[in-house]
């Protein structure tokens, strides 16, 4: 398992920025949802490249650092953020995602599914943001969306078509 603060030590054969050739989708989520999130991505034809456990006390800055780690792998075609905020506040996650997209100038699709503590505040932050972040309430729909978007990005790269992910789709 990879964490925000200790990224390479827990899985020695997977270093930051590394993946297998078939990996194409990254997942950022709490540890309790990690396996289900990866399974549903696989169910819909995707291949999770990695996952991060943001833990119960992550800050917006730590979420941004997690995105730096995930996007250091050039094979990642899309990111699915799946959070059930019990202790972790969804608005803090949303702030971190917005910061990451803005500060890292991310050009890949980001699908966000947030449920739990302060979710309405999180949704308002994402909706008010002019950035390229797709919010989805249903995990199944979010997984389908991230897999399809990943396929589109992958096909464009194979065809050497320079695309930039923009909303609306």
UniProtKB/TrEMBL annotation:
Gene Ontology process terms (BP): succinyl-CoA metabolic process; tricarboxylic acid cycle
SUPFAM superfamilies: Succinyl-CoA synthetase domains
InterPro entries per the UniProt record, alphabetical: SUCC_ACL_C (IPR005811), Succinyl-CoA_synth-like (IPR016102)
Ligase is among the record's keywords: yes
GO MF terms held by the record: ATP binding; succinate-CoA ligase (ADP-forming) activity
GO CC entries: mitochondrion; succinate-CoA ligase complex
Ranges where the ATP-citrate synthase/succinyl-CoA ligase C-terminal domain occurs: 28-147
Key words, A-Z: ATP-binding, Ligase, Nucleotide-binding, Tricarboxylic acid cycle
Protein name per UniProt: Succinyl-CoA ligase [ADP-forming]
Protein's organism: Lates japonicus
């Amino acid at each position: 398992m990879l964490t925000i603060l200790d990224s390479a030590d827990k899985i020695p054969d997977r270093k930051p920025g590394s993946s297998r050739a078939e990996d194409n989708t990254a997942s950022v989520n709490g540890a309790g949802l990690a396996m289900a999130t990866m399974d549903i991505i696989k169910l819909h034809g995707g291949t999770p490249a990695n996952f991060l456990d943001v833990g119960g006390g992550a800050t917006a800055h730590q979420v941004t650092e997690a995105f730096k780690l995930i996007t250091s792998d050039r094979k990642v075609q899309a990111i699915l953020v799946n959070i059930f905020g019990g202790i972790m506040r969804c608005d803090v996650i949303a702030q971190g995602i917005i910061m990451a997209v803005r500060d890292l100038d991310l050009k890949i699709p980001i699908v966000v599914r947030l449920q739990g503590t302060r979710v309405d505040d999180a949704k308002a932050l994402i909706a008010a943001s002019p950035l390229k972040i797709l919010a989805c309430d249903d995990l199944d729909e979010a997984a389908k969306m991230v897999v399809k978007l990943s396929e589109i990005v992958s096909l464009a790269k194979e065809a050497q078509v320079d695309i930039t992910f923009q909303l609306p789709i």
